[in-house]
Automatic annotation (TrEMBL), chains A, B:
S-adenosyl-L-methionine binds at residues 332, 341-342, 400, 427-428. It comes from Entomortierella chlamydospora. Gene3D superfamilies: Divalent-metal-dependent TIM barrel enzymes, Hnrnp arginine n-methyltransferase1, Vaccinia Virus protein VP39. This is Protein arginine N-methyltransferase. One of its GO terms (cellular component) is nucleus. Keywords: Methyltransferase, S-adenosyl-L-methionine, Transferase. The record marks 335 as: Critical for specifying symmetric addition of methyl groups. GO terms for molecular function: protein-arginine N-methyltransferase activity. CDD domains: AdoMet_MTases. Residues 475-654 form the PRMT5 oligomerisation domain. Residues 33-297 form the PRMT5 TIM barrel domain. The keyword Oxidoreductase does not apply.
Length: 657, 657
C-alpha cells in the first residue's frame, strides 16, 4: 500500500444546498482542503413530477412523461458543468419505485433516468443513490436501477447503505443488527448481476454492528465510506477524533482506499468577512479531514508480508506446477527471502539431529541428510547451520531435477559447501542412492499442502530413507472454509467459461470474508510405511486419494462464492508451518491461500449449515481436486447445492510427470 | 403419438440369473414375446474385490486395483456379446461408495468403472444402476457416477428409483411419501448437471404416492418404468390386470414412451418338455406384457389437439411477431382450423348484437362491425353468421395490413361477401375510417394474452369505435405459475448463451410439472377510455406497462426451471377463451402455453414460497418482458433468487413496427 493520499469529500445537508449557495460551498470546501463536495443534483421543486395533477389538466407533465420536456431551471441545483470535476451528485430521495400507484412508479423511474442522464451530461465523477427505506419492497427499485445504470458510462454509481439498520430496528438483538442492511444490498446486487458497476457508499454510525456483521462488507464493493461529523468525539485539545472501535474500522477500510465523505448536519458559515475573528478559523483545513489523513498516514508500518503483497492482493494466480515445469530463478529468489520459513526448517533439522542418539559402539557419529528438491540450496544451508548448532556431523545429499537450479548448487558446492555436500542431478522419485538417509528434508508444499504433489514426490523418495529415518515435514493438513468475495467471483466470471470456475487460484486475499473458521479436511503423513513396501515405489497412487465432507455453521447470512484453502504442517514435533489464519506462522509470506470458486454463488441464511465436499483424486498421469458446496437448514434439509466441479479433472489438474 | 408398439422387457430376480441359465432365460423371454431381458452383468462372486484380504497377502487384488487384472470368468454372468442386443445389464448392488472404509470406497468405484467398461464392450443397449439406500449419504456416489457415465458412449444409463421410499418410511404422513426418493434423485442429477445422459428407471409399487408427488416425475427423464408382477391383480377371467389408479399412472407414462420392465420375484419354469401339459401355456405370450400392450392400444382416441400437437411436444418455438412480420398462409390455415375459437367468437358477436337495442325512432337497424386484423377472413364469416342468427343487419369492415392475406379477402368479397363487407388495406392503427363502429372484433391474442401486442394495436384502433362501442375481446388476463422441466431447461441450456435464457418460448408442454396452480398477474381491458383521449392515438405507451409480484406456495419440494404462462380472455360477457389449465376451453388448440426460462434452476422446499416478479415494459420502438424468481421460507426470508432476466429487453422483445 503506497502512502499517496486518500480522497475526502465534504457533504453538507442535502436540503440546505441550492443553486444559489453551491458556488460558495465549493469555495468553502476547497478552502478547507476537501477533495470534492457532495451536492444534490436536483432541488426539492423537482418533486412536482410525482404529485402534480393528472394529465388532461396538465399538458406539461404529459409532455414530460412522453420525453418531450426536460428539467425546468428551478428543478436543478447543478445547472451547469462548472466545477463538475469537484462535485459528486446525489439522487433525490422522494422516488417511490415500488409504490402501489402505477403513476408514482412510472414517474419515479422516469425521474431517476432523467437525473442519470443529467449526471452523465455534466460528467460528474460519481452519483450516490439514497438507500431505499427497509419498510419498502425492492423488486421494482432493483429492476429500475439494473436497467438504468448503463446510462452512466463514465460516472461511478454508489448505493448509500447504512451499516446499521433503521432506528426502528436498533432494538433487536445485537446479533441481528446491521443484518437487514446487507440483505437488502445483496437483493439488489443479485438482480443487477455480480458484474454490475454498482458500488456501495457505506455510512458509519455512532453505534457500530458486531465485527462479524461488519466483516461481510469487506467482501462487497465498498467504494465510499461516509462518516457523519457528529460521530466524532472531541479530544482534550478540542480536536475531533474517532473512538477506538471507529478508528479500527476506518483503518480497515483504508486498505481498500475508498473515497471518504464527511457528512455535516448543518451548513457552514459561508460569508467570509476578511476582518472578522472567523478569518483564521475559516482558512484552516477541516479538522475532520485532517484527522482522517492522520489515520491514513499513521497506519502500521508495512510489514514484510505487505511489502511483498503489493500488487498481489486479490489477484488470481495459477498454482505452481513444479513437477511439470521447471521453476524460474526469480521464483526461487522470491521464496528464499521468506524470513520465517527457513528459520523453522533450520530449527526442525536441529531438533531432529539432537534427538538422534550418539553412537556408543565407537562408529562415527554421522547423520545422513538428503535434501530432495534442493532448488538453489536454501535447505542445504539450513541443514549445515542446524548441524553446527546441534554440534553433530552430517553428510548431505542435495538432489535436484531442474538443470538450471543445478547450475547454482554446483557453484554452491564449489564455493561454499565442499565435501560436506554431495550434489545429485536426478528426479527424487527415480534416484538410486549410494546409501540410505536418516533425515529426508523437502520443501514441496503448496498453499493447500498437497497441491504441488508433495505426497507423490515423497512417496517416490521414501525408498532412500532408512527404516527408522524421518521426514521433514512429518505431515501436512489441508484446511477449508466457505468464503464470500464478490470481487474474486466476478474476476473468475469475466473469463466466461466453465474451465476457470473449475480451477483453483493462489490469491493474496483482501476483499473477502470467511463465513466460518477453517476446518481440517485431510492429512498426509511421511514416511508412509503402511501403503508403500520397504525400498519400493508404490504400485499405484490410490493411497493418495483423499476426500472429506465438512460441515460449517454460518453465523451470519451471506453469499458463498467459493472455498478458501490453507495448510498447516508439522515439520518436526512442535516445529510448525501454518498459513491457516488461526495459527498463521507470524511473518511468513511464502504462501498465499488458495481459492476454489463455484460457478453459481449460493446464499446461506444465518445459522445455516454449509457442507463442503472435497476430493483429491488421481489417475496414472495426474492429480486433481473435485468440489461441491451445499447449504442445509434444520428442518428443511438441503436448500441448494452447487454442481460437482472439475469432474474427472476436466478443467484443471496437476501433472505427475 | 403414433400407435407403434412399446418395448417391454422381462426382469427375472437378479440373484437367480447365472451364466448357466442366461441363454435359457433369453429363449424364454423371446418365446413370451418380450422385447428384451434384464440381467445382472456380474455374478455375486465378483463381490470378492471388496472383502478379500489386504494387499500384501493378495497380489491378485493389488494387481486388480492397479488396473492390471480384469474379470475372472466366474465374476461374470454376461461373458460374451451373444444376444447383447436383447439384454439390458444391471450393476451389482454391493458397492458402498460412501463407506467410512477408504478401501471399500475405492474398490466400489473401481468395480463400477469395470462394469461400465464391460457393458460398453458388450455394446449393451442399457445399464441400470441400483438405487442407493436412503440411509446412506450420496456425495461420493454422485461423484463417481458423474465421472463414470462418460464411459458409456453408446449405452443408456438409468438409475433405478422407487416411486415410494423404503418400507421403513412408509409410515410417514401421506403428504411425505415418495418425497425423499425424488430428493435423492435430484441431489444426484444436480451433481451430474442437467445435461447429463443419466435417466430414471422408476419402479412402481402396490401403494402409490399422491398425484402431486407422482407429478414431479413427469418433469424428470423417466426412461424406464418397472412394474413388479406382484402388483398386478387377477380379473375374473384369471388374467393379470392393474388397479384403476395404476392403469391411470401407467397410461400417463405411456405418453413418454418409456421402456417397460415386468419384474418377477421368481424364476420361470425353463425346461420345456415338448410333450408336457405346459407346452401350450409356455408358448403363449406373457399375459402381463399383453396387458400393457392392450393398455397402450386402447388409449383415448387422439383428440384434435393431440393430432395437431404431434411433433410439437416440448419443442421450443419463438412466439409470433405479427406486427413485425407478415404471417404465412399456412399459419393462417392452421389457426383457422381451430373448432372452438371461432365458435366462441361467433357466439360473442351474436350476443353483442342481441344486446343492442333496436332503434325505435325509425332509423334503419344497422350495426357497424369492424374486424381489425381480418387475416383471411374467418372473423368476417363469424360476424356474418352471428348477424344471421341474431336476425340483425350489419355493415362490416375488414381491415388487414398483410398484402398477401388481403388477396384472399378480395376474393372472399368478390365470391361470397358482396356488399355486406367493405375491405380495407391498412394498418388498424393508422386507418381513417368513413364512419365509426359499434363493435370492434379482433383476434390478436398470444399465448400470454398481450405478447403479440394486442394492447398496442387495439389502442391504435380504438378511435374508430363509437363512444358507446364495444370491443370483442373485452379483456384478457395473463396467468403465471412456477414450473419444473429438466427437458426444457436442458434444451435452452444447450444454446450456451444468455440470450436464449432471456427469451420466451411457445411450447406444447409434456415433460413438465407445475409447482403451484397458475395465478393472474395482470389484465388489459378494451376499449381503454381512461388512458386514451377520445378519437386520438395515445401520446405514449406508458399505460400499457404492467408489473406484478405473485406469491405461490409450493406443496412439494421441487426445482424451478422457469415460469409457465397462459391467458384467459372475456370475448363478451360470459363468452370466454382460456388456455389456463384450470379453465381451458375444451378442444381449443390455437395456443400452446408460453415458457419463460430462468438461467439457474432454483430449489424450493415443500411449503416454501415462490415469488414471481414480472414486468411488461415498453419504449418507443418495442415491448418486452423482464422476470425474476425468488424462494422464501418462513422464518428465513428469501433463501435464493434468480438474477433479473432480459434487462431492458436486451435479449428478446416484440417490435412495435
Amino acid at each position: 500500500m503506497s502512502l499517496e493520499s486518500i480522497q475526502i469529500g465534504f457533504m453538507p445537508p442535502a436540503d440546505k444546498v441550492s443553486a444559489e449557495n453551491l458556488l460558495q460551498l465549493v469555495a468553502y470546501a476547497q478552502s478547507k482542503g476537501f477533495d470534492y463536495i457532495v451536492s444534490p443534483i436536483n432541488s426539492p421543486a423537482y418533486r412536482r413530477v410525482l404529485f402534480e395533477e393528472e394529465e388532461p389538466q396538465n399538458p406539461s407533465l404529459r409532455a414530460w412523461r412522453a420525453g418531450l420536456e426536460s428539467f425546468r431551471p428551478e428543478d436543478l441545483v447543478l445547472r451547469t458543468a462548472d466545477h463538475s470535476e469537484f462535485i459528486v451528485g446525489t439522487i433525490s430521495d422522494w422516488q417511490d419505485f415500488d409504490s402501489q400507484d402505477l403513476k408514482v412508479r412510472l414517474h419515479s423511474e422516469l425521474a431517476l433516468k432523467q437525473q442519470f442522464n443529467w449526471a452523465s451530461h455534466l460528467a460528474l465523477g460519481g452519483v450516490m443513490l439514497p438507500y431505499p427505506p427497509s419498510s419498502k419492497p425492492l423488486s421494482n427499485y432493483g429492476r429500475v436501477l439494473t436497467s438504468s445504470i448503463s446510462m452512466l458510462p463514465y460516472t461511478a454509481c454508489w448505493l448509500r447503505v447504512p451499516c446499521m439498520d433503521d432506528e426502528l430496528e436498533r432494538n433487536v438483538a445485537e446479533e441481528l443488527q446491521g443484518m437487514k442492511s446487507w440483505e437488502r444490498w445483496n437483493t439488489i446486487l443479485n438482480m443487477a448481476g455480480s458484474q454490475s458497476k454498482l458500488g456501495i457508499a457505506l455510512e458509519l454510525s455512532a453505534t457500530l454492528p458486531t465485527d462479524k456483521v461488519l466483516d461481510r462488507w469487506f467482501a462487497e464493493p465498498v467504494k465510499v465510506v461516509i462518516i457523519p461529523e457528529d460521530i466524532f468525539l472531541t479530544n482534550n485539545k478540542g480536536y475531533p477524533v474517532l473512538s477506538k472501535r471507529h478508528q479500527h474500522v476506518v483503518r480497515k477500510f483504508m486498505r481498500f482506499k475508498p473515497y471518504f465523505m464527511i457528512s455535516s448536519s448543518s451548513l457552514p458559515k459561508l460569508t467570509l468577512d476578511e476582518f472578522s475573528d472567523d478569518l483564521l478559523e475559516n482558512s484552516l483545513a477541516s479538522p475532520h479531514a485532517d484527522y482522517l489523513r492522520y489515520l491514513y498516514r499513521t497506519q502500521d508500518t508495512l510489514g514484510v508480508i505487505d511489502q511483498f503483497a503489493t500488487g498481489y492482493q486479490d489477484y488470481l494466480q495459477a498454482p505452481l506446477q513444479p513437477l511439470q515445469d521447471n521453476l524460474e530463478s526469480s521464483t526461487y529468489e522470491t521464496f528464499e527471502k521468506d524470513p520465517i520459513k527457513y528459520q523453522q526448517y533450520e530449527l526442525a533439522v536441529e531438533r531432529a539431529l539432537l534427538d538422534r542418539p550418539v553412537p556408543t559402539d565407537g562408529t562415527p557419529d554421522v547423520t545422513v541428510i538428503m535434501v530432495v528438491g534442493a532448488g538453489r540450496g536454501p535447505l542445504v544451508n539450513c541443514s549445515l547451520r542446524a548441524a553446527e548448532k546441534a554440534g553433530r556431523n552430517v553428510r548431505i545429499y542435495a538432489v535436484e531435477k531442474n538443470p538450471n537450479a543445478f547450475v547454482t548448487i554446483q557453484n554452491m558446492k564449489a564455493s561454499l559447501w565442499g565435501d560436506r555436500v554431495n550434489i545429485v542431478f536426478s528426479d527424487m522419485r527415480t534416484w538410486n542412492p549410494p546409501e540410505q538417509a536418516d533425515i529426508l528434508v523437502s520443501e514441496l508444499l503448496g498453499s493447500f499442502g498437497d497441491n504441488e504433489l508433495s505426497p507423490e514426490c515423497l512417496d517416490g523418495a521414501q525408498k532412500v530413507l532408512k527404516p527408522d529415518g524421518i521426514s521433514i515435514p512429518a505431515n501436512y493438513t489441508a484446511f477449508v472454509a466457505p468464503m464470500s468475495s464478490n470481487k474474486l467471483h466476478a474476476d473468475v466470471s469475466s473469463f466466461k467459461d466453465l474451465t476457470h470456475f473449475e480451477t483453483s487460484y493462489v490469491v493474496m486475499f483482501k476483499a473477502i470474508s470467511l463465513l466460518a473458521q477453517p476446518k481440517p479436511i485431510w492429512v498426509f503423513e511421511h514416511p508412509n510405511r503402511k501403503d508403500i513396501p520397504l525400498n519400493q515405489n508404490p504400485l499405484s497412487n490410490h493411497h493418495n486419494i483423499r476426500s472429506g465432507s465438512i460441515e460449517f455453521t454460518s453465523k451470519t447470512s451471506g453469499m458463498i462464492h467459493g472455498i478458501a484453502g490453507y495448510f498447516e504442517s508439522v515439520l518436526y514435533k512442535d516445529v510448525l508451518l501454518s498459513i491457516n489464519p488461526e495459527t498463521h506462522s507470524p511473518g511468513m509470506f511464502s504462501w498465499f491461500p488458495i481459492y476454489f470458486p463455484i460457478k453459481t454463488p449460493l446464499y446461506v441464511p444465518a445459522g445455516g449449515q454449509v457442507v463442503l465436499d472435497f476430493w483429491r483424486l488421481t489417475d496414472t498421469r495426474k492429480v486433481w481436486y473435485e468440489w461441491q458446496v451445499s447449504c442445509k437448514v434444520e428442518g428443511l434439509g438441503v436448500i441448494h447445492s452447487s454442481s460437482l466441479h472439475n469432474v474427472g479433472g476436466r478443467s484443471s489438474s496437476i501433472g505427475l510427470y
